[in-house]
Amino acid sequence: MNVIGVMSGTSFDAIEAAAADLRFQSETLVLRPLGSRSFAYKPDLRAEIAAALPPATTSAGAICRLDTRLGQAFAAAAAETAESFCGGLAELIVSHGQTIFHWVEGGRALGTLQLGQPSWIAERTGSPVVSDLRSRDIAAGGHGAPLVSLFDVLLLGNGQGTRAALNLGGIANLTVVPEKDSPFAFDIGPANALIDAAVRHLTSELETCDKDGLRAARGTVHRGLLQKLAEDPYFARKPPKTTGKEHFNLPYLLESTWSFGCIEEDDLIATVTALTARTVADALERYGVDEVAVSGGGTRNPTLMSMLQGEAPGVRWRKIEDWGIPSEAKEAYAFAVLGFLSFYGVAGTIPACTGAGHATVLGSITPGHNRPLALPASFEGELKQIRVEAPAGGSI
After folding, report:
1. What are 304's strand-pairing partners?
2. What is the pLDDT of residue 13?
3. Which residues of the chain are under the pLDDT cut of 50?
4. 3-state DSSP assignment of residue 383
5. Which residues are bridge partners to 164 per DSSP?
6. How far apart are CA 234 and CA 113, in angstroms?
7. Which of 107, 234, 329, 381 has the most CB atoms less than 10 A away?
């Protein structure tokens, strides 16, 4: 089955789309990457997303308009990806949408909201769409995140020592696969969230990220501020746990800096970059990780990657490409897999990773119009691994 996954992360800079040929082969899910693309948000749409995110306030009208505009943007991305890699038509599209709010109180997730109305995708492409993948896990008592944990566990499989998958998006999330014990997953804390927030603030929105880590490389880490940020109670909590820009945002950062007086711009960027490196390294050390497969936008920041390796020198650092998955498209491929599993009635969660009371089939299905919606017979086997195949006529 040709499946397209489309998603936008907490950095909300672009829609990532990935097309895959997916099939079951006994206890293995075979994934053949067909190709991936990135679709940058138009500046005005990105501004609308930013205006709706906490701690900003918004209105029902603004949310309605944003839901429609995001649905149209996801529809265009899915259609162009289908045209590029699926002969114009995908058999299934899986849309994560854009997270606007993740409701956590007292360490428990109570709700989540992803925008990007799937009807626009179904209408534009004609394909059935699986969407709203996080809510069911939360209803089952989980955090609705990290949802990529099932993909990570099936992909990494059983290796020697403790392996982990680390994604460096706006938030850093980690899936730990011990050699013998059960896997688990959680959000570590900010990856790019505070870096991006600081850069946008310091440049009056003229820059949106620390491109190539140049600002952090020029700066000097402010040890007092780093220590204050690292003492945030969230970091000491045990998994499963989730967080987001509801907590780690610009007002949070500015409030943390006020007692230190004037901090040079590049020093501030260096400090929040060091915070990501320290908190990730602490998590890897705490859980005895021997080897980590890293992905996400943070891998494009050489200063961050250098800091990470310096903070965790005993860990073997590898990129997710070693497993045949492009780093930037990893989560898009993961959601393609989750939606595919939902189509076949297969649970897409590991309760030990999300904290849910039981595993659940994820998402809601919006029918397409190219043919009547007909769900395949449920997959009754026990899925144990993902095997990535090289595309026909090429290598990964």
Report:
1. none
2. 86
3. 393, 395-396
4. coil
5. 176, 292
6. 22
7. 329
